[in-house]
């Protein structure tokens, strides 16, 4: 089995915490796109904001409507 390269924890519908982020590719009020070691993670919602970004960890707050791994 292959070890996971990231971990995401959704906290209600108002926050998500992601470990293993290599880069914030783009961000806006309705979408934040993150580059992972293998692939990308798209967070969709309303009023999104990045509350933390350090040591490959990202915390996003806002109304989260979807998370898509690409």
Order of helices and strands: EEEEEE
Low-confidence stretches: none
Name the overall outline. Answer: globular
Main sheet, how many strands, which sense, barrel? 6 strands, antiparallel
- What proportion of the residues is helical, as a percent range? under 10%
SS class: mainly beta
* Number of E strands: 6
Report the radius of gyration as a whole number of Å.
11 Å
Task: List the strand order in the largest sheet.
Answer: 1-2-6-5-4-3
Count of individual helical segments: 0
Q: Could you please describe the fold and organization of this structure?
A:
- With 70 residues, this protein is an all-beta fold.
- The chain is built from no helices and six strands.
- The chain has strands spanning 7-11, 15-19, 21-27, 31-36, 40-54, 57-69.
- Strands 1-2-6-5-4-3 form a six-stranded antiparallel β-sheet, with no helix packed on it.
- β4 (31-36) and β5 form a beta hairpin.
- It starts with 6 loop residues before the first strand and ends with a strand.
Short summary of the structure?
The chain is mostly beta strands and 70 residues long. The protein has no helices and six strands.
List its salient traits.
single chain, 70 residues, mainly beta, six-stranded antiparallel sheet, 0% helix, globular
Describe the secondary-structure layout.
Layout lengths: L6 E5 L3 E5 L1 E7 L3 E6 L3 E15 L2 E13 L1
């Amino acid at each position: 089995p292959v070890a996971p390269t990231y971990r995401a924890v959704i906290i209600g519908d108002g926050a998500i915490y992601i470990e293993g982020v290599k880069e914030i590719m783009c961000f806006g009020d309705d979408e934040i796109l993150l580059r992972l070691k293998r692939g990308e993670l798209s967070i969709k919602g309303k009023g999104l904001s990045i509350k933390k970004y350090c040591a490959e960890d990202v915390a996003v707050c806002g109304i989260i409507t979807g998370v898509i791994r690409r």
